[in-house]
Please model this.
Amino acid sequence: MNNSKVKPQFITDKKNIYSRHPSSVDAQIDTLMKRGMIIDDYAFAKDFLEEVYFHRFLSYSVPFFVTGNTHQYQEGSKFGDVVKIYEFDSKLRLLILSAIEKIEISVRTQFINLSWKYGPHFYLDYKLFRDHKLLNDSIERIQYQLKVSNDLLVSEYYHRYQDPEMPPVWIAIELTTIGQLSKWLRNLKHEKDKENVSRRYELHFSLLQSILDNLTLIRNFSAHHTRIWNRRFDFECALNDTPHNSLVHALCEEGRIYSVLLLIIHVLKSLGFDQEFFYDLSRLIEIYGINIKEMGFPVNWQENFKAVMDAK
Model:
């Protein structure tokens, strides 16, 4: 077969040329009203759409569409109700980013603690890692970050020392992301080292690995202001002999934001921030009156969270 003649399924011989012109905000509001959306405050709607582009607004209004018809809203659908979901989603992302910050700093600390055994530059030691190409990629990324960094600790290191070329791990790790930490954990050669990193969270290292991978995904969505509240995610699944069945279920079943929040609260429990997170989450849901089924929440979600928080 001549592969050059194979076309992707979405490409046809017929050429459909996009020819629509951008609509004014007034025209956008008119479109929404023609589709059945109730706009009680025209001035507010116009101000909102002048700051939040139309198709971003549409992505939050999907739950209000008539089933099977993306050009018709259900009876009683209000502009303000979509804005409430939009604002809830924004605050949920901030709550999640705050939690991930605590987790990321803690995991960095566990990696730094490996220096007690291997020395301050162990992150450059090929004997301690399985995949040397992956390690090279990590080193190159850190080298680039060192070049462009204005971090005071980095500047101070190079002001005082010329050798080694790379700073100790407690400086270099400041330039890593949670995604890079996840790759470090996966690439460690010795299971004992992985256990030393994961012990703090009372998790098998394979489960911590999956959690970090999934938090990396959510962190990227949240940092780039992407809608998360009713999105379906393709999560990394880890199955092992862990006693934390609720966490395995959260990873391996339906990938909704509920699963992420359950994983977060388990890790935060080991850091002492679980009660604060649970309160902030519960309060956010209560204030905005969100339909939590869209987020994958079961009816007994509070009981499930408290079971994780109260587990010995």
The chain has two domains: 22-55, 87-310. Residues 87-310 form one domain. The CA atoms of residues 174 and 265 lie 24 Å apart.
